[in-house]
Design a protein that fits this description.
Elements (H helix, E strand, L loop, with lengths): L4 H10 L2 H42 L13 H28 L9 H18 L3 E8 L2 H27 L6 E4 L4 E7 L3 H18 L14 E8 L7 H17 L5 E3 L6
Parallel strand pairs: 4-5
Antiparallel strand pairs: 1-3, 1-4, 2-3
Helix pairs in contact: 5-6
Length: about 270
């Protein structure tokens, strides 16, 4: 009989208001700590991880991670942003190298092909003309044989300089697509204006009067050009535009070189 009151006293002591209140306060304190940890650490890390994932998927290294607190995580974010800037700079240089001709500094075939596809689609949407001029230096193999490859490289750089001075619009595309072959793409330029520009460029090179003793024609370095111009429709294509410009170039060569020929199939 003497043990009957002991368990009730023990229960009363365990579940006394003071202990219950302490347990509640401890639980709430831990809940507050967890919420604060999520806000201060977990959520920022999740946001940073999402940003890093977007950067990786888009390859856009110009983006930055945003974290304004000057704590350990903030120091890590600063280091990562510096790494992103370093990667962005190197990526930009690599892209520039991949689209530029190493000898002349103008665009290469890869740039030309990508810009051709883009400008063709743009011209198609707006129903505007796209013109192509194909240039080929006359008797260039003979020039290399006579003056050496260093001399030939110098001529290629000089001619590229003329192209850059003559075709200066943001939409103008200048590229070296072969040894002595160059292509210019002109957005929203009619075949008549493209023909004028090609003739002026041929004249620019003629005025330089670069000696070419191995040329059976004029004694100076000259260039031939073919022009084609299309307004994109279902019946033509960017490949056809370049093919017609090439055909016009062959006509200029056959007619005596140092001149420009325009494709009769131009439709702009």
């Amino acid at each position: 009989m003497c043990f009957k009151a002991a368990p009730r006293a023990f229960d009363d002591e365990i579940f006394s208001p003071t202990i219950v209140a302490a347990l509640i306060i401890a639980t709430l304190s831990w809940a507050v700590v967890i919420v604060l940890m999520k806000r201060a650490v977990i959520y920022p890390i999740e946001n940073l991880a999402q940003t890093m994932r977007r950067i990786r998927q888009s390859s856009n290294y110009q983006q930055k991670l945003n974290y304004k607190h000057n704590d350990e995580l903030g120091k890590l974010v600063d280091e990562y942003n510096e790494l992103l800037e370093h990667v962005a700079n190197h990526t930009s240089k690599l892209e520039a190298y991949s689209y530029k001709d190493a000898l002349t500094g103008i665009g290469n075939r890869r740039l030309f092909q990508e810009r051709l596809d883009y400008l063709w689609k743009l011209a198609s949407r707006r129903q505007l003309s796209l013109s192509a001029i194909v240039f080929d230096l006359d008797y260039f193999k003979q020039y290399n044989d006579r003056y050496g490859h260093d001399g030939g490289d110098h001529v290629l750089r000089q001619f590229s300089g003329l192209l850059k001075k003559r075709f200066t619009r943001e939409t103008d595309v200048i590229a070296r697509t072969g040894g002595e072959e160059f292509i210019v793409l002109l957005f929203d330029v009619s075949k008549a204006n493209a023909l004028k520009l090609a003739n002026r460029l041929v004249g620019d090179l003629r005025l330089l009067a670069i000696p070419h003793e191995a040329s059976p024609q004029s004694g100076v370095v000259s260039v031939s050009a073919g022009v084609a111009s299309f307004t994109p429709i279902k019946d033509n294509s960017p490949d056809e535009l370049i093919r017609k410009a090439d055909e016009a170039l062959y006509e200029a060569k056959a007619a005596g070189r140092d001149q420009v020929s325009i494709s009769p199939d131009s439709r702009a």
